Amino acid sequence: MGDTTVMRARTGVIESSRIIGCGVQNLARENVGKIEDLVIDLREGRVCCAILSFGGFLGIGEKHFPVPLTALSYRADDKTWVMDVDKEALKNAPSFDKGTMPDLRDRDYLGGVYSHYGYEPYWH
User: Fold this and answer.
1) What's the CA gap between 100 and 119, in Å, rounded?
2) All structural domains of the chain with their residue ranges
3) Minimal CB count within 10 Å: which of 17, 41, 48, 52?
């Protein structure tokens, strides 16, 4: 495997279709899930998190994980999203069962999500 470039854009725009449905790998190139959705904070006009699916088989037992968008980077050479997390840390991350999304307007809950991944909440 050759060197790759991980892009972290702080400016610009990207279509949600280039994010939703894409695979996510950790820095060791292990698959850690797929981006299922983006959640938008209408009050702030920002994407508050991506919803990552992980685990299960054929959708059964699959867990969903809210992940700060700032925790994801794009690797252009293989069109994969990357996050600096190992599978064990993801297993212990805040999660929910498919179809039972928590109230992501709750800043205490969402602040805990950001804290788990080591990021400052965007509203601070």
Assistant:
1) 24
2) 14-117
3) 17
Whole-structure pTM value: 0.84
SS (H, E, C) 8-22: CCCCCCCCHHHCCCC
Tell me the pLDDT tens digit for each residue of 40-66. 999 999 999 999 998 765 555 678 999
Cβ-contact 41, 48 below 8 angstroms? yes
The one-letter code for the residue type at 48 is C
Residue 72, both tokens: 């994801």
CATH homologous superfamily of 14-117: PRC-barrel domain (2.30.30.240)
Alpha carbon distances (Å) from 88 to 39, 65, 74? 24, 13, 22
Instruction: Tell me phi and psi for residue 26, to 5 degrees.
Output: -90, 180
